Structure formats: structure tokens, C-alpha cells
Amino acid sequence: MKIKLLFLLLLISGTAMAQKADKATIVKQGWNFGALPAITFDSDLGFQYGGLVNLYQYGDGSRYPEYDHSLYLEVSRFTKGSAIYQFQYDSDRLLRGIQTIADLSYLTDQAYHFYGFNGYDAVYLEDWTDDDQADYKTRLFYNYDRKLFRLKLDFQGPLAGTNWKWEAGINLQRFTVGKVNIDKLNKGEKEADKLPDVEGLYQRYCNWGLIGPREADGGTIPALRGGLIYDSRNFRANPESGIWSEAVLEYVPKILGSEDHFTRMGLTHRQYFRLIPRRLVLAYRLSYEATLSGHLPFYYLTKRVVDGAKGNSMEGLGGARTMRGILRNRVIGDDVAFANFELRSRIHNFQYKNNNFFVGLNGFVDTGKVTGKRALNFYPSFAAIDTKNYLDYGAESWHTSYGLGLKAGMNENFIVSCDYGRTTDKRDGDAGLYIKLNYLF
């Protein structure tokens, strides 16, 4: 199980107990930043080391807690090769009145999760990944190797001075995928701890024809997007009231090396209710995505359309950004729907070294399912194979998890989040712990 240590979270939580609460808010001006170490451990990937920095420019402070410019940088690596290199810029002052979001990332994952298509229709056998069980195959049976280069540019602007906005953007992505590199992962391991040379689910899907040869090793996705947004939130990073709704179309043409073309649509609705000012908020998010035309490569099924402007980690369904506690990427198909419900409380507001801090708790319920299933077309030579350990046709239903979260925020924008979620069905795994930045939505 991955263990995450977050020193700043402990520092903020400890300091909070010694400060007086609910003083007048300090208005920030100029530059302000938050920094975190990134320290994790995974038995198959090794230690992660590195850090992230988020800088905010508040100008003369007249718009605080809104910012003029935000710069986010993360550089972190695993000792066995996986890495995150990410830079993001966000501003509505670079082009006056137009929000500009630029993202440049290179992401590698030597054990990217893959459980098959169509949710519960794809059987998950935990014993196959547990080396203490008689049925053990390999700890990384449900994984493959993925590398992603991404260059992204999004714009949002107002429509006639109302809460309505237009959005447009381009997202150039290059995926490189393949089987898990067990030679690299086994390097330096004791013989008893080495991964066996066993075909994983990804390789078997390729052999059977469920993943076609054209998409098996990745490809280029030049995605164009456009849509409408309704935004009446009182504050972007940590709203207490208002609505944020989006309708977006994504089109991928056959250009710049793309081998597939397709069209997708996404709808999302987020709403916030202030129950007690600066103390208690009820929030929910509803999302639906559908493939309108063409064929999505298997490696792109995990990418979300909704929240596309800033949702850099929106993959799955399942995991830190969609359904907490459920296995990452457990629920993928041509069409999906999901929902999140949160009750957010602030238990302490305080000030420290000329900064505004808060500590909060939240309870949540997440749920989702595949609403449009991906067609499974076996090669004729494999049409009669026994699939009872791989497929359970018609089993798909709602996947649900629940849990609690701890939040620690600085100047309303830099928010450290620790969420613990549990599943309601063992077919989705057991539980998950996630330490990241910002609220889920």
C-alpha cells in the first residue's frame, strides 16, 4: 500500500491549536507561495522524492482572495523511473478579461492501472496480485507502462457581462504504452520479491483482439474543445455558494499523426450551498460523458472531458479525483456518469506569520457507472476461450464509496487535502488514502 507523508500538513495542523481563531482576514498583496515536499513509497516503484510549488500574484490586493496570476510547478521522481514534470500557468490578467490556462507536462507511470472495460463486466481478482495467495500471478497483473507528454492551452471568456462564459482550447497529447518493464522493476530486488514474467491483463487483451494493434502501443491525440460555462460561484478555489456548470464538445481529427478521429461530449454541474457562513458548506457534482462518433483508443478511455481546463488529474473513473477509495481506472467505457457529494466544515480559522489559515473536515459519498459499454470483439481464434475469470457480462452497476477528509488551507487558494475513502463492494478494492492539493471540485 502506498504510504504518503506530508510535513506541511502536520505543521499547519499543529500550529492551528496555538492560534486565536476568526481574526479579521489579512488582505494579501503581491506574490505569495506555498511549497510541499513529495514523499511517497510504493513497493513496486520505490520511493518518490521531489516537491511542488504554487505561486500566487494578488496584485494590489483589491480582488483578494482572487489572484491575478498563478504558477504551479511540480518535479518528482520514483527511484525506479516514474516521474512527474509539470508546469501550469493560470491568469485572467494576461489577456484582460479572458482566463488563460497553459499546461506543459511529462508524466511517466511504470504501473498504470488497467482492469478492463465496462466496470463490473470486467472481473477483478485480488488474489492474482497477492503473492501470499495460491492463485498469485503477479503484483502488476492489472497494470501496463504508460508515458504521456501533454501541451495544453485553454481559454475562457465572458458572454455579454453575465455569468455565462465561452471556452475553447487545444490539448496535444502523445501516449506511449506497453507491457510492464519487469526487468527494470526487478533490478536490485531479492529473488523472492521479484515480479514473475507473466502476461498481464493488458497483454492478454492485446492477444485476444480486445485492444487492437493500431492502439496497442499508444498514439497522438490532438484534441480540440469548445463549450459553454455558467459560473456564479462566490470564489473559484473554495466556493461557499453558487453554481458551476459546463457543456463541452471535444473533437479529435486525423492530423499531427493521429490514427483515430472521434467526438465526445461532456456535461457537468456543480453546486454549493452555504449552510453556516465560513463554517459549513454542502456541495455536489454531477457529470456525464458520451462518445458521439468515431472510435476512442483504449488508452484514452481514462481521460475525462469535464473539468478539462484545470482537472489535470481527472482520469478514471476511480481514484483520487473521481471516486475516492475505488481502484484507479476501475470504471471505464465509451460513456460514463458519476457524482460526488460533500459536506465541508471549517473547524478552525486562524492567522500565522501574516497569512490566513484554516483547518477543515469533510464527509463524502462518490458514485459512478458505465452508461455506454465498449464493444468487445475477440479475434476469431479466441472467440471460444473461457472468460469466467475475466468477463461477467451484464454485471455492471453503480460503484459507490464513502469517506472523510482533512483540509488545511493558506490564503484560501493553497489547500492541502487528505481524503480517505472506502468502497461498498470488494470488486472495487478496499480503500484509498489520497494527499493532494485543493478540494475535489
What does this structure look like?
It is built from three helices and 18 strands. It is mainly β and 441 residues long. The chain has a single domain (3-437), classed as membrane protein fhac: a member of the omp85/tpsb transporter family (Porin). The chain has an 18-stranded antiparallel beta sheet that branches. A hairpin with a 3-residue loop joins strand 16 (399-410) and strand 17. The longest helix is centred in the first third of the chain and has 10 residues, at 7-16. The protein is globular. It starts with a strand and ends with a strand. The model is unreliable at 1-22 and 308-312 (pLDDT under 50).
C-alpha termini separation: 26 Å
Q: Name the CATH superfamily classification.
A: membrane protein fhac: a member of the omp85/tpsb transporter family
How much helix, percentage-wise, in residues?
under 10%
Question: How much of the residues is beta strand, in percent?
Answer: over 45%
CATH class: Mainly Beta
Q: How many strand units?
A: 18
Number of helices: 3
Estimated structural class: mainly beta
Q: Based on the structure, what is the oligomeric state of the protein chains?
A: single chain
Uncertain ranges? 1-22, 308-312
